[in-house]
Amino acid sequence: MGTENSNRQNYPLRPATIPFSTPQSSTPFLSSGPVIGSQASAFRPVPPASSQFPTPPLSAGPLAGSEAPGFRPPSSVRSNELVGQPPLTQSPYGPPTTGLQRFPTSPLASTDHLQHPQASVSGLPVAPPPTRPQGGSVPSQASFFPQPQPPSISMRSPSQNIKTGQFNTNIPPSTDQPFSPSRQHVQPFPPPMGPSQATARGTFQPAFPGYSSAQPYSSAQVPLVRSAPFPSQPGGYAPPLPPAPFPGQPRGYMPGPPVTTSSVPYSRDQVQLQGTAQPIASRGLVEDFNSLSLGSVPGSLDTRLDVKALPRPLDGDVEPKSLAEMYPLNCGPRVLRLTTGGIPNSQSLASRWHLGLGAVVCPLAESPIGDEVPIVNFGTTGIIRCRRCRTYVNPYVTFTDHGRKWRCNICSLLNDVPGDYFAHVDANGRRVDLDQRPELTKGSVEFIAPAEYMVRPPMPPLYFFLIDVSISAVQSGMLEVMAQTIKSCLDNLPGSPRTQIGFLTYDSTIHFYNMKSSLVQPQMMVVSDLDDIFIPLPEDLLVNLSESRIVVEAFLESLPSMFQENMNVESAFGPALKAAFMVMSQLGGKLLIFQNTLPSLGVGRLRLRGDDIRVYGTDKEHTLRTPEDPFYKQMAADFTKYQIAVNVYAFSGKYTDIASLGTLAKYTGGQVYYYPSFLSVVHKDKLRHELTRDLTRETAWESVMRIRCGKGVRFTSFHGNFMLRSTDLLALPAVDCDKAYAAQLSLEETLLTTQTVYFQVALLYTSSSGERRIRVHTAAAPVVADLGEMYRLADTGAIVSLLSRLAIEKTLSNKLEDARNFVQLKIVKAFREYRNLYAVQHRLVGRMIYPETLKFLPLYGLALSKSTPLRGGYSDAQLDERCEAGYTMMALPVKKLLKLLYPTLLRIDDCLVNSSVEADDFDVSKRLPLTSESLDTRSLYIFDDGFRLVIWFGISASPDIARGLLGEDFGADFSKISLPRRDNEMSRKLTKIFQKCRESDPSYYQLCHLVRQGEQPREGYFLLSNLVEDQAGGASGYADWFMQLHRQVQQNA
Ligand SMILES: [Zn+2]
Asked: CA torsion, points 540, 544, 547, 552, in degrees to nearest 10?
């Protein structure tokens, strides 16, 4: 059967229906079972003896054309997710339709409104779905089972042919849609590189006006001819494919001269540069770029560069300020960061920018206290939006005609101001009520959405738990920690008293729990027919937490002991997943999966295909990292469609095929948590913290997100954990502050005629409190005609974030080496282009020159190449670990990603030993270069990558420190002990330092690992392999990497 445990004894199935029983035994819980090794690092799956590699799975899978990686939405219409029509397509709320299971006696089961697949591309609104009352509307069944089943659960109905279907077949027919997906086509992408450079250069204007002519920068360009970006030209703008509401718009723009950013203040430095002959002496130039001498030192054969002089991000991520200074009304960089704040004014200029033109968006980023996102309720006025492009009113719209009209900053249409929203304007065009209008003064704002933004009552927060109770789940202690944690969170789940909850457990059978509030104990129902899953008692499996609180608590208290004696090794994960879907599909919500073994029974069972060293370096390598069975992608598509977000918690030390399981999280806006070789004694704090955060953080439900931008530019690809519902609408069944998404921008016009491009992120969601809301973030960026400006406004953090996602996506269709080369090539091309701008004029031929804004890019690029998803080959990361890291990094906000790539290394023994230094004063910003040369054998260091803490004990460090921190264990094998809390000053200080590290970012919990210098392989695994500046294995050290880049930049320069 392909299970790793197939040689173990299978125990007979539990009786079909057993009453739920209270804990029968008080036997102490076994937390040190023999099943799982204690060390993640020590474990290495044995490659299967004869692994067969099938043809790459899913390379033409049902979703491949429309999902994130590599997908370029067609150039059809953007906008209008909310055009007066229900914002979401109808069937996410409707009952499951033909292709899915039906509840046997549901009165709605016959409301089969699934359209023929082609209907969804008509672009015509169809009737809204029947709104279903929440919960409990399905008549109960008379008995649990067995009983005649409806012709149900076919996941492969003709309309959802997973072999050949387009994603659109899974998208319910649109009600909101002016989109016309049938007109989609895929555009070539990425922007031309290489060959086009020469052409591009031909049209390039002098890049650095201060040098090339006497004209000051601010007047070097064609003068502005208009004061307003879009003078009254009604109809002068139309989206490329006119959406239905505006059919009559003439195409085309008024031709205009290329306009530069003459009005923006950053021309200062440029002006100062005028006439400067010696670049290094110029202040402006120093601000603008850096160079490092790399040529051979005269009189020496040593061609190595001064390693200490290499740039390092020891201050962590510093968000660039220039854009915010230009446009103070922009939303904050926590929410939106552009890879460059200078939007190229032409395609030829864009083609010379090699670092990805785009944005990283974290729509629900947490705001600092005192700077919360204001909530605006327009009441009966309705939300003020442009009637053509559906942009939300924002600080960049302008009021004219004495306040009676407003001009859209995105499409320049002149809109009427509704009577209720009218205010007089002063001589400067300022509304007199501006101070009371956050939507006109703040870059981030949240609108309360009226009824037309819903197609059903806002869903309640819903948490459904799918729990593996096979032997390893029990013996590792996972079950106990999980149950305790959920129980401790019950008071803090968002959305009380509407919150819904439910549980399902499985091993070789599936166990449902009746949680009806009238019961005292939950009632367990076991289904053992895995081929024909049905739901017993559909109305009592998901219950209102407040009403059924007692039953829920009783369940969680009994759960660990209930399965204490369970010796079942099988996992009917796939059938259990389908059952969970059937339970949840009426409402949507969050599905939390706790999986301990490789799915071994029923649909979705996975082979122990494992990791195979022979496949590395071949063209089949990537198949290891992609799901083998289309079942998982298909399920993910169904989950998303029904507003279900999936978080996967995986615990096994053996191969569990995270590549397949993670797919569920990837396409549903979820997240993968991985605790390899979970052992309660070691990992419980981490699981407890992360599960608690997952359950209690503020969550946006049943969401969709769109990023609008001004005419001439368009977002063409999206990268992260989500599913694309239409060309540019991201379906996010659940979102929270820990999720970010990247998008790439393309120019649609050969030449942009505007001086500013505006972006607007709109996230339509249901809050836990049951309101429909729209979080809107607006930002502006200048259009530039000059490549130098693009570099000056570059944001390394955003670039690294985008490149990481592109590189990780590349590992799913290419070799690891190809992905690393991709990163390197991007940097080389960018630096070469930059060099061509400046090197000759400045006689910097023998030097590596790079823009100040990108000085950390080489190091982050190196770190990315050495990160878990991309590093080395077979022996450099466990396959599951690699896949998990890939899924995780695809969703990380910028700051968190940068910290993972270039972690913090701090020396701590001074603080611990010195009694005059308080732990509160310990400076966590004194970061050290990530090289073994930073490590003094007499000292202690702490390494923090945001996911774990490592304490490194130098071999010559004072034994007093080790004794103070570890007591009599100080001489023991560090893999066997954990850091105790001891009653002494040193221990208290260290605890405080941990606290500081953990508080700086609570999204994950950093488990602490102790490492003694020289103790291998522990030291290598936890620390040395993460010192990214060192040469390790086949990978370069920082200095060598820098030299390599330099040489490649010079080639064909
Ligand atoms: Zn507009």
From this structure: 70
Cα(412) to centroid of ligand 1, in Å?
6
Contact 411, 389 (CB under 8 A): yes
Is the torsion defined by CA of 119, 121, 127, 130 positive or negative?
A: positive
137 pLDDT above the threshold of 90: no
Distance 387 CA to ligand 1 centre (A): 7
Kindly report the backbone phi and psi dihedral angles of residue 921, in degrees, each rounded to the nearest multiple of 5, phi listed first. -85, -10
Q: Give the Å distance between the CA of 784 and the centre of ligand 1.
A: 22
Mean of per-residue pLDDT scores for the chain: 76
Residue 496 alpha carbon to ligand 1 centre in Å: 39
* C-alpha 983 to ligand 1 mean position (Å): 64
Sign for the pseudo-dihedral over CA of 594, 600, 602, 606 = positive
Cα 344 to ligand 1 centroid, rounded to whole Å: 22
Mean pLDDT of the 872-900 span? 95
CA of 713 to the centre of ligand 1 (A): 14
Compute the distance from residue 397 Cα to the ligand 1 centre, in Å: 10
- Collapsed DSSP state (helix, strand, coil) of residue 910: helix
CB 524 within 8 A of CB 20: yes
C-alpha 81 – ligand 1 centre gap (Å): 13
In this structure, are residues 4 and 598 in contact, taking their beta carbons and an 8 Å threshold? Answer: yes
Find the 407 Cα to ligand 1 centroid distance in Å.
8
Rounded to 5 degrees, φ, ψ at 791 are -65, -40
248 Cα to the center of ligand 1, angstroms: 15
d(CA 157, CA 238) in angstroms, rounded, equals 40
Q: How far is the CA of 79 from the centre of ligand 1 (A)?
A: 9
Whether 92 contacts 765, CB under 8 Å: no
H or E segment to which residue 1038 belongs:
helix 1038-1050
CA of 390 to the centre of ligand 1 (A): 6
Q: Which residues face 774 on adjacent strands?
A: 447, 764
Q: Cα of 240 to ligand 1 centre, how many Å? A: 14
DSSP element (H, E) containing 713: strand 713-719
Q: Name the more confident of 241 and 863.
A: 863
Global confidence as pTM: 0.75
Other CB atoms closer than 10 Å to residue 235's CB: what's the count?
12
Q: How far is CA 1049 from the centre of its chain?
A: 32
C-alpha to C-alpha distances, 65 to 169, 626, 709, 723, 806, nearest whole angstrom? 12, 16, 24, 11, 16
Strand partners, 444: 777
990 CA distance to ligand 1 middle (Å): 55
CA of 339 to the centre of ligand 1 (A): 25
- CA 466, CA 505: separation in Å to the nearest integer? 6
CA of 76 to the centre of ligand 1 (A): 16
3-state helix, strand, coil in the chain (%, to 5): 30, 15, 55
Each residue's pLDDT tens digit, 551-566: 999 999 999 999 999 9
Taking the centre of ligand 1 as the mean of its atom positions, its distance from the CA of residue 757, in whole angstroms, is: 13
3-class state of residue 953 by DSSP: strand
Nearest to residue 313, comparing CAs of 930, 972, 961, 995? 930
Residue 284 CA to residue 272 CA, distance in Å, equals: 6
Tell me how far the alpha carbon of residue 376 lies from the centroid of ligand 1, in angstroms: 20
Rounded to an integer, what distance in angstroms lies between the CA atom of residue 211 and that of residue 225?
26
| Alpha carbon of 735 to ligand 1 centroid (Å) | 27
**pLDDT tens track for 67-116:** 333 333 333 333 334 333 333 333 333 333 333 333 333 333 233 333 33
HSE of 924, CA atoms in CB hemisphere, 13 A: 20
What's the pLDDT score for residue 948? 94
The pLDDT assigned to 619 comes to 87
* Phi and psi angles of residue 324, each rounded to the nearest 5 degrees, phi first: -65, -30
Give the Å distance between the CA of 406 and the centre of ligand 1. 10
**Most confident by average pLDDT, 165-169, 189-193, 862-866:** 862-866
